[in-house]
């Protein structure tokens, strides 16, 4: 048998090496404009991050009704990210090394949200530490009157970056047992109600990973459906949990301690100092 | 036996050994090179049209999101677009009058997927009707769904790019909307850039009467009423040789200067595909246009071309027979403004209903013409009418000339709700209402008889 197989094996007569790369190798190309130059200068060079703002079939969840970003919104959104989300990290760590190392290498932008059949919608996604996706870019505005939407975007951004961090180094497993009652039906729970259950937002009640990053993002950028009805700072959100003696309040405070400790021990970042810088950056950026 | 088979197999294998005598190029080009060439040819085709393209897009009536589909009214949208050779496209749209007058520039790209595709890869007018946010798309398909239009299209003419003519067919990749690109003329381009699309769209919305009559040299040609897809459709009615009313419907779209019917409508011997050079004259409140080369004047009319005398009673009896109600999602349109009284903004709004003989008070039956606020009624309780030919000055009644006049018995819900103030005043208009049965044979438009400038659309809840 072995002999038979040997005699029927192929012999390739000729081999010509290619002298030019195959067309299309390296992805799509298009005529670069000022947006592409801005991205290259402000994200690709300093942070080694590529921005996919143009619609690429199949790149986002297929087959979903999602629209691409408006050209006019791309640079403003990136500037806001740089000033309000990234700059505080740089100031706190002293240079761009931390972000350069941990920022996901692809930032994807979508114009609309992604609407799920259960009535919820995606505002952001993080993919295994390699890509981060921000939705609703087309609604971006720096105006004070629109600060809710802006805060939501920053909340999303810190949420997704939080995922990247814990996907690199996991938080202590004891965090997962602080609360019980994680549920896939989190979207049926209102945010204030979730706070009374010891979760900072209703989405935090989805899973321990979400709980952890919702704590990070709510402390850095505020959280939804606070006492004002819109996005409020973390301290105001806490008032909805109950009195400082209540179980819910203390549960959230226990999670806060885990987050602060995690940032200090794992990343050598003073979380409260970072938070102060994030808040100042946000307020200063509003118009 | 087993051995024999093995030997045969071995012999066969030896006989078909590898002798590669072909190469995988066609005319000396590898597949990658041919794909690249084809995309370049498509790109040249698009950017090479000196006066740009018209793109007319028609939906299938189905919209997809996350593998789930929703069905609803079909729609057609029209664009004018100019592609350049640096991946930029500039366009106008007939979605609304702002997009009709302000050109917007965005990106486009050609890419090879299963087929060569044209992608509008940053947001522009063509994305508006497929935006999953209904407050942007104005889509009635529900949250997460647009109208079922697309912005990523496959070229669907099965011929090489170089052989494409002045008409190019496209099929949407997500919703399978079909689009056709037609090379524009210089005259068409100039018309778009001089704001004629807005003029056309505005002209058609200046006459507020529900009934619009088109006439030529004093002869009435036909009557236009809103179709079932709202402003995206029209119904044309005319009297045939025996004096009977004939009605046909079509989706429509606007181009600079023209209203175009997707389905041509043949009135007697005249086939109508478009109305050209629309303009509105405020001094006479008329629209002048050209149909098949002849000048036509369109004026508002306070009464239908031929009223269906039995329609009000048939409408009312329909509710009785089914023991159910008619519903309207949007309330009254008055002077061209949809939901003029803003009922849809009310808390817990579901719809407006008409329910004949809803209940009785003692021996007196009453009809409900009221807002349904998540299952509780607010609005007018009307005296139920007696069947014609009986008339009455106290009860709701059917007039011999085919109107229904409502009389109030009492109120449901809060007396201060707009449903019991402004909306009630509208309902109790002393001239009463015409009922116009639409082309689907079950939807009625209730049109105020005084000036035909207020109307509400009712569809049977029991036959949705």
Brief overview, please?
The complex is a heterodimer of chains A (287) and B (464). Chain A is of the alpha/beta class and 287 residues long.
Which descriptors would you attach to this protein?
heterodimer, A: 287 residues, alpha/beta, four-stranded mixed beta sheet, two-stranded antiparallel ribbon, 6 strands, 47% helix, B: Lipocalin, Lipocalin, nine-stranded antiparallel beta sheet, 30 strands, 16% helix, 41% strand
Write the layout of secondary structure elements.
The complex is a heterodimer of chains A (287) and B (464).
Chain A: H1 2-8, H2 34-47, E1 50-52, H3 71-93, H4 97-102, E2 106-109, E3 114-115, E4 121-122, E5 124-127, E6 131-134, H5 147-168, H6 191-196, H7 208-221, H8 234-239, H9 247-267, H10 271-285
Parallel strand pairs in A: 1-2, 2-6
Antiparallel strand pairs in A: 3-4, 5-6
Chain B: H1 2-15, H2 31-47, E1 53-58, E2 62-65, E3 68-71, E4 76-83, E5 88-93, H3 97-101, E6 104-107, E7 109-112, E8 116-119, H4 134-137, E9 152-155, E10 167-172, E11 178-183, H5 186-193, H6 196-204, E12 211-216, E13 219-227, E14 230-239, E15 245-255, E16 258-267, E17 270-281, E18 286-291, E19 294-301, H7 311-322, E20 326-328, E21 333-334, E22 349-361, E23 364-373, E24 376-383, E25 397-398, E26 404-405, E27 408-412, H8 422-427, E28 433-437, E29 444-448, E30 454-460
Antiparallel strand pairs in B: 1-4, 1-11, 2-3, 4-5, 5-6, 7-8, 8-9, 9-10, 10-11, 12-13, 12-19, 13-14, 14-15, 15-16, 16-17, 17-18, 18-19, 20-22, 20-30, 21-30, 22-23, 23-24, 24-27, 25-26, 28-29, 29-30
Structural description of this entry:
The complex is a heterodimer of chains A (287) and B (464). Chain A has 287 residues and is of the alpha/beta class. Chain A has 10 helices and 6 strands. In chain A, the strands form 2 sheets. Chain A has a 4-stranded mixed β-sheet, with helices on one face. A two-stranded antiparallel ribbon of chain A has the order 3-4. In chain A, strand 3 (114-115) and strand 4 (121-122) form a beta hairpin. In chain A, helix 2 packs parallel to helix 3 (71-93), helix 3 runs antiparallel to helix 10 (271-285) and helix 5 packs across helix 7. The longest helix of chain A is centred in the first third of the chain and has 23 residues, at 71-93. With 464 residues, chain B is of the alpha+beta class. Chain B has helices spanning 2-15, 31-47, 97-101, 134-137, 186-193, 196-204, 311-322, 422-427; strands spanning 53-58, 62-65, 68-71, 76-83, 88-93, 104-107, 109-112, 116-119, 152-155, 167-172, 178-183, 211-216, 219-227, 230-239, 245-255, 258-267, 270-281, 286-291, 294-301, 326-328, 333-334, 349-361, 364-373, 376-383, 397-398, 404-405, 408-412, 433-437, 444-448, 454-460. Chain B has a 9-stranded antiparallel β-sheet. At the A-B interface, helix 1, helix 3 and strand 3 of A face helix 1, helix 2, strand 2, strand 6 and strand 7 of B.
């Amino acid at each position: 048998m072995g002999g038979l197989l040997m005699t029927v094996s192929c012999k390739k007569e000729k081999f010509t090496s290619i002298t030019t790369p195959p067309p299309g190798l390296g992805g799509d190309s298009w005529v670069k404009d000022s947006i592409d130059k801005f991205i290259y200068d402000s994200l690709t060079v300093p942070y080694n991050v590529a921005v996919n703002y143009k619609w690429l079939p199949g790149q986002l969840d297929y087959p979903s009704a999602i629209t691409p970003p408006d050209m006019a919104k791309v640079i403003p959104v990136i500037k806001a990210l740089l000033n309000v989300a990234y700059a505080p990290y740089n100031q706190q760590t002293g240079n761009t090394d931390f972000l350069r190392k941990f920022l996901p290498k692809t930032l994807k932008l979508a114009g609309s949200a992604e609407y799920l059949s259960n009535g919820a919608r995606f505002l952001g996604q993080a993919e295994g530490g390699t890509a981060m996706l921000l939705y609703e870019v087309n609604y971006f505005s720096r105006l004070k009157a629109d600060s809710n939407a802006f805060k939501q975007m920053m909340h999303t951004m810190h949420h997704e970056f939080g995922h990247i961090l814990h996907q690199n180094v996991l938080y202590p497993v004891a965090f997962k047992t602080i609360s019980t009652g994680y549920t896939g039906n989190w979207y049926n729970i209102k945010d204030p109600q979730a706070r009374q259950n010891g979760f900072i937002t209703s989405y935090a009640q989805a899973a321990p990973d979400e709980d952890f990053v919702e704590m990070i993002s709510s402390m850095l950028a505020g959280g939804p459906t606070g006492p004002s009805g819109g996005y409020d700072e973390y301290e105001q959100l806490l008032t909805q949990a109950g009195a400082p003696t209540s179980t819910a309040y203390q549960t959230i405070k226990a999670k806060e301690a885990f987050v602060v400790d995690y940032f200090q021990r794992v990343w050598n970042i003073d979380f409260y100092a970072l938070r102060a810088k994030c808040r100042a950056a946000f307020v200063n950026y509003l118009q | 036996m087993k051995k024999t088979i093995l030997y045969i197999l071995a012999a066969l294998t030896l006989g078909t050994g590898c002798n590669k005598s072909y190469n995988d190029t066609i005319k000396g080009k590898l597949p990658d090179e041919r794909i690249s060439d084809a995309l370049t040819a498509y790109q040249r085709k698009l950017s090479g049209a000196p006066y740009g393209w018209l793109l007319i897009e028609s939906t299938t009536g189905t919209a997809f999101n996350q593998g789930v589909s929703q069905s609803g009214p079909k729609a057609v949208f029209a664009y004018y677009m100019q592609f350049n050779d640096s991946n930029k496209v500039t366009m106008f749209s007939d979605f609304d009058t702002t997009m009709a007058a302000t050109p917007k520039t965005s990106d486009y790209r050609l890419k090879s997927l299963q087929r060569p595709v044209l992608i509008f890869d940053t947001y522009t007018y063509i994305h508006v009707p497929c935006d999953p946010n209904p407050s942007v798309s104005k889509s009635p398909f529900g949250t997460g769904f647009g109208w079922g239009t697309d912005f990523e299209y496959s070229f669907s003419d099965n011929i090489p790019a170089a052989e494409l003519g002045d008409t190019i067919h496209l099929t949407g990749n997500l919703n399978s909307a079909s689009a056709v690109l037609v090379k524009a003329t210089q005259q068409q381009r100039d018309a778009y850039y001089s704001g004629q699309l807005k003029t056309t769209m505005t002209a058609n919305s200046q006459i507020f009467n529900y009934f619009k009559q088109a006439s030529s040299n004093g002869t009435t040609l036909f009557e236009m009423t809103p179709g079932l897809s709202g402003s995206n459709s029209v119904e044309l009615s005319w009297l045939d040789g025996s004096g009977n009313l004939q009605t046909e419907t079509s989706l429509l779209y606007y181009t600079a200067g023209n209203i175009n019917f997707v389905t041509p409508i043949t009135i007697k011997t005249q086939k109508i595909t478009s109305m050209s050079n629309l303009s509105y004259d405020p001094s006479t409140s008329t629209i002048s246009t050209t149909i098949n080369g002849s000048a036509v004047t369109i004026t508002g009319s306070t009464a239908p071309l031929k009223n269906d005398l039995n329609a009000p009673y048939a409408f009312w009896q329909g509710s009785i027979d089914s023991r159910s109600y008619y519903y309207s999602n949007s309330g009254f349109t008055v002077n061209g403004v949809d939901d003029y009284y803003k009922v849809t903004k009310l808390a817990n709004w579901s719809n407006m209903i008409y329910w004949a003989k809803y209940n009785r008070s003692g021996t007196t039956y009453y009809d409900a013409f009221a807002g349904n606020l998540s299952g509780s009624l607010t609005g007018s309780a009307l005296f139920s009418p007696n069947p014609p030919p009986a008339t009455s000055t106290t009860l709701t009644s059917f007039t011999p000339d085919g109107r229904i006049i409502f009389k109030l018995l009492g109120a449901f819900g809060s007396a201060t709700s707009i449903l019991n103030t402004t909306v009630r005043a509208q309902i109790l208009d002393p001239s009463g209402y015409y009922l116009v049965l639409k082309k689907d044979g079950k939807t009625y438009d209730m049109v105020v008889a005084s000036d035909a400038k207020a109307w509400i659309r009712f569809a049977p809840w029991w036959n949705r």
